[in-house]
Design a protein that fits this description.
Blueprint (H helix, E strand, L loop, with lengths): L2 H17 L7 H5 L8 H29 L3 H20 L3 H16 L1 H11 L5 H28 L5 H19 L17 E4 L17 E4 L5 H13 L2 H31 L8 H23 L5 H23 L4 H28 L6 H23 L9 H29 L5 H8 L1
Antiparallel strand pairs: 1-2
Helix pairs in contact: 1-7, 1-8, 3-5, 3-14, 4-5, 4-6, 4-8, 7-11, 10-12, 10-13, 10-14, 10-15, 11-13, 12-13, 12-15
Length: 444
């Protein structure tokens, strides 16, 4: 097996196993069940927001040290924090332990950046598209297995909500141990770069004899910019490009809304159906994952070379408004199955739109800056998510009910669609006869 493919397979096994968390679709059902003495209000306002803020704060530090530590230690950290989280879920009961657990969940999610960027430091650039698709597909596969497993365990009455956590704990232990098998990264993109030698031919100066000057070439190390200088160079190159700013902003706003919708959806379903005979959360998760994967694949084939940036933006503006309509379907119905349908459609559309947005951002980037720019965009997304949490969820804001929160998130997506539709119309009016390439140059 070729070395790049071997490394890709090792990383994909980690990504797939890590995503097999069958207890996750039912974490709210478990926490509000007889195993813990906690109310829905405490869960919504005192527990879940800690995870949001922790994720944001820790991403800043993880983002800076991932390259310096050369990825592998952070991937091991993902597995280790997973073991801590699900151990605490099983064997602790207090409110403070849940809040500590949410802090570790922030670490668990923030360190994910190492999983996505490790492969770029280990394989040649020509394999980037393939290994990126492999790592994404591995995570989708893990999520699909997770959703199916959880639903079957409950449907056949083989496990309850608490016992599902034992499967998740086992997969996190396996993932942690597997992470140690990943090859060590000897070089990284910024702090541990290769010194590329250049060949210089010595020349004979007047008055020097042939014995004093060798005709053999000599090698000297190229003078490379420092890590921080290179970081700033890539950052400045990206965010002085109008198209990168435009699509990065959409990426961040869309991701923030998606995270918020998925983070609290189980609380919404608990409000709609407080005592379900059978919660189909696992099946919903499995169907959503499958559709999102198909939509992401369709977006890749449809978008590549077929749509110009202006057309892509118009499509995403429309689909963002449709996503808002799907969220309204989730929260404005009293039928839990219609809420499931709305959530599945929302997730599938998001899989399409985020793929298009990612492709448009990547189209305008230097290859080596992918991890930096997408990491920063994620940081901006988490900032937006924290603002949404403070405004709509916590006591410092409106402290809305679950239905009120999701109504607000729905109009958030609709407003984003309207704003970007206006931006497309302004572009069209301002540059009516401008080709995409010229328009991109004018925005830089």
């Amino acid at each position: 097996m070729r070395e790049w493919l071997k490394i890709s397979c090792l990383l994909c096994v980690f990504g797939c196993v890590r995503e097999i968390r069958p207890s996750e679709p039912y974490v709210t059902e478990y926490l509000l069940g007889p195993w813990r003495n906690i109310t829905e209000n405490q869960l919504t306002h005192d527990v879940y927001p800690v995870g949001t803020y922790s994720y944001l704060v820790q991403l800043v530090f993880v983002f800076l040290i991932t390259d310096f530590l050369r990825y592998k230690p952070l991937i091991i950290t993902i597995g280790a924090t997973g073991v801590i989280i699900w151990s605490m879920l099983i064997w602790t009961t207090s409110l403070i332990s849940l809040q500590i657990l949410e802090f570790f969940y922030g670490t668990y999610m923030a360190a994910e950046v190492a999983y996505y960027t490790y492969i770029y430091a280990k394989v040649d650039k020509k394999y980037y598209p393939k290994v990126t698709s492999h790592t994404r597909a591995a995570m989708f596969a893990g999520k699909l297995i997770s959703g199916i497993t959880s639903q079957l365990m409950l449907y056949w009455d083989l496990m309850d909500y608490k016992q599902l956590n034992y499967i998740t704990l086992a997969t996190q232990i396996i993932a942690m141990l597997w992470a140690f098998s990943l090859p060590r990264v000897d070089k990284s993109l910024y702090f541990h770069r290769e010194q590329v030698p250049v060949t210089e031919q010595q020349t004979q100066l007047p008055g020097e004899s042939n014995l004093e000057v060798s005709d053999q070439p000599r090698e000297s190390a190229t003078k490379q910019p420092s890590a921080l200088a290179l970081l700033w160079q890539h950052f400045r190159s990206a965010y002085t490009n109008g198209r990168v700013i435009q699509w990065s902003l959409w990426y961040a706003i869309g991701l923030a809304g998606y995270l918020q919708v998925t983070y609290y959806v189980q609380v919404l379903w608990k409000t709609i159906e407080p005592e379900p005979e059978m919660a189909w959360n696992g099946a919903v998760d499995a169907v959503l994952t499958a559709l999102a994967a198909l939509c992401a694949l369709a977006a890749g084939y449809l978008h590549t070379g077929r749509l110009n940036p202006r057309t892509s933006l118009l499509i995403l503006a429309f689909l963002s408004a449709v996503e808002g309509g799907c969220v309204l379907l989730c929260c404005w119905t009293e039928n839990i199955y219609w809420s499931y349908v709305g959530f599945i459609l929302f997730g599938a559309l998001y899989g399409f739109t985020i793929t298009v947005a990612s492709a448009e951002v990547a189209r305008n980037l230097q290859e080596e800056s992918f991890g930096l720019i997408f990491g920063f965009n994620t940081l901006v997304a988490l900032t937006f998510q924290s603002l949404l949490t403070m405004i709509f969820v916590t006591e410092t804001g409106f402290e809305l009910s679950p239905v009120g929160q999701y109504t607000a998130y729905a109009f958030y997506f609709i407003a984003v669609g309207v704003l970007y539709l206006i931006s497309v119309l302004v572009e069209y009016i301002w540059f009516p006869g401008t080709t995409s390439e010229k328009l991109e140059n004018s925005l830089e």
